[in-house]
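Data availability (excerpt). The following record was deposited with the supplementary files.
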Amino acid sequence: MRGLSTVLWKDFLLLYGNPAAAVLLIVLPLIMIVFVSFAFEKLLIGDPRLDLSVVDLDDSAASRDLTHDLDEVVSVKEHAWDQDRFTGEDAAGLFGSGRRVAVLVIPRQFEERRAADEPSPLQLYVDPAQRGLASTLRSAVENRLQSEDLLETTTTVVAEVSGRPSEEVRPDVEAALAEALSDPSIPIDEQDLIEGRSLPSAFEQTVPGFTLMFSVFLASAVAGQIALERRTRGTWFRTLASPVGRPVVVLGTVLAAFSLGVLQSVILFAIGRFAFGMELGSEYLGLALAIILFQMVPAGLGLALAGYTDNIQLQNNIINLSVLLFAVIGGALLPLFLLPDWMQFLSRFTPHFWAMQSLHDLMFRGRDLADVAFKLSILAVFAVIPLTLGFLRFQFQRDA
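Predicted structure:
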């Protein structure tokens, strides 16, 4: 027992006494959580409102009305332009900063051609580097223009049928269409999964996501500590040869990193709850199990890496790749719905996916421990595999 406590105390001092570990596991994920939550809030929780730059070469009542109408569906940013023409080269100059997705140009004589029922097409210049967002923006603009066409057509038909002037009919038609669009005959009533529980905020994606993502860096602490003791301090082999036994020596290193990962999770979840109003649900035992099982993954990964290589640079490269790759594919860095289908399929082969889905189920889908038991069991498999490989390696390797 005395040998076990000595080994554990040594490993805890080595890990907890490193200020870089606190910075990496608490400060950096907290910075990422705050910035990403505010930067992508609309994307993560819905209702995105894209900016549309508009160059009005006509500067007429009709063009100003059009700009006003478009501002109801997108955020119009009027761009002053004092020249007669606007070309693709001019648009390329505006796209250079990356702040504009597309530029809509209202041509000269727009009002005159509309009055004469002549075609007066608008020009849309799209930033090639942001074409995906531009297509969403174009759809919003086209839907608004189609609504205007519907208004004009309906006004003409009603005027012909009633024998009243179009100018007199238009306000009534416009009011009727506006009422129909705002109050459709078949309404959609969005319901909360849990009574009295509002939709989740951006922090409910970023806090658990970045907590899991940065936890994987603990694998470096395990692998690096063992490698340093082997190569520089020379204490690893003496410790393995002591009466304590190899399982206890390995367990000390694993427990130190595991406990730091659990502490990191508790701190970040507490900050999310009390500083950002993040909901935690009511199944605290399930949350604790999800965190505990996941924190076994980086500890086991570091142990397995240390068992097969003493090259610290190689260890760090593998771990850094794992941090980013698993976070992206597993839905910790980005919501799964943003990923292509093939990546969503691969996500099920990462521990992050099962941990995130378990946490989301418990936090704001109203599930209880029994509902997430299967997901937690899969997460347990991901936790046991690297730990088993690491323990077997240090039990049977002859050179350690």
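Summary of structural features: DSSP finds 17 helices and four strands in the chain.
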